[in-house]
Design a protein that fits this description.
single chain, about 325 residues, 2 domains, about 15% helix
């Protein structure tokens, strides 16, 4: 007869084993999600693996997103989008479950505008006058800043944060950055008058700002204002479309043939066209963030080592890892 104590120990061991496998498996899923590009098709966001081109994950948004609005990821990996009523809602991209109530102080955001997140996890959007408004994404409380209420940016343009926490947005032909605490302009005025009105801007992992021009996507050093690299996607990127950097530093943009990526240093095309013939010409794009600093080979090693450790414990010896 098996004792109750023995049965309890066996059950606890099984629970610990399951927890270890589940934790490492979740780590692996975060790494896989980091290669996923999301874009709007109708009122929902669809994800594509940028390496294989295959559609992945759940359809996000339940047709609630504005077809002309913007999508962005928070620092927890939730995907947010604008509704046609000018509010922002967030979803878990893996499960498709909504994670918050609609934000935006009763529709204060422009439904065709841009949203982005600061390094504290606050969500910022543009109102119809081009003013930037920040809110806590889970309480809805407005974030204080020194930017004032006057329209600093184009209401249909893109906004984004640099690594120092300065907010950048489009003005006619250029991009300008502001310090949220002081309201002072930061860095140089970028674009040389070439950035397209209502276009898209994005920072690469070196801190250079890229924007859409009639000649493709062009990058500028945000401090000196000097152009960096060559124009990417010349003749292919849609002028009113969106651009986004993946976690490797490659730049992706909308074309009539789908979303195409380019190495920002060599200018060579990378990967396959994603979402061919499905994304709208003004669809917003966003790459899922890499939520773990553990690279995929290390994560795989952890998974295999974890399984070996479980086997070793169950057989009363420790494997050599």
């Amino acid at each position: 007869m098996v004792s109750t104590n023995s049965h309890s120990k066996h059950k606890n061991k099984m629970n610990k084993n399951f927890f270890l496998v589940f934790t490492i498996s979740t780590l692996l899923s975060f790494n896989a999600q980091a290669d996923t590009l999301y874009g709007l098709i109708g009122g929902s966001a669809y994800g594509y693996n940028s390496i294989t081109g295959a559609q992945v994950g759940s359809v996000i948004g339940d047709n609630q997103f504005s077809v002309s609005g913007n999508i962005a990821f928070d620092n927890k990996g939730n995907l947010w989008g604008l509704t046609s009523g000018g509010s922002a809602i967030g979803f878990n991209p893996i499960t498709g479950i909504q994670v918050s109530s609609a934000l935006g102080i009763y529709g204060q955001f422009a439904p065709y505008g841009s949203i982005t997140f600061d390094n504290k996890g606050n969500l910022w959007g543009l109102d119809s006058g081009g003013s930037a408004v920040g809110v806590n994404p889970f309480t809805g409380a407005q974030v204080k800043s020194a930017l004032g209420v006057s329209g600093l940016f184009q209401s249909v343009g893109s906004i984004t944060f640099d690594s120092k926490g300065n907010l950048w947005g489009l003005t006619p032909g250029n991009a300008v950055g502001y310090n949220l605490m002081t309201g002072a302009q930061e860095g140089s005025i970028l674009g040389n008058g070439q950035f397209i009105s209502g276009g898209s801007i994005a920072f690469d992992n070196k801190g250079d700002l890229w924007g859409l021009t009639p000649f493709g996507a062009i990058g500028y050093n945000s401090i000196t204002g000097e152009q960096v690299g060559s124009a990417l996607g010349s003749g292919q990127f849609i002028s009113g479309g969106s651009i986004a950097f993946d976690n490797k530093g490659d730049l992706w943009g909308l074309t009539p043939f789908g979303v195409i990526g380019y190495n920002s240093i060599t200018g060579e095309q990378v990967g396959s066209a994603l979402g061919s013939g499905q994304f709208r010409s003004n669809s917003s794009l966003a790459f899922a963030p890499n939520l773990t600093a553990v690279p995929l080979p290390a994560a795989l090693w952890l998974f295999v080592s974890g399984i070996a450790l479980i086997i070793g414990k169950n057989n009363k010896y420790k494997p050599k890892l």
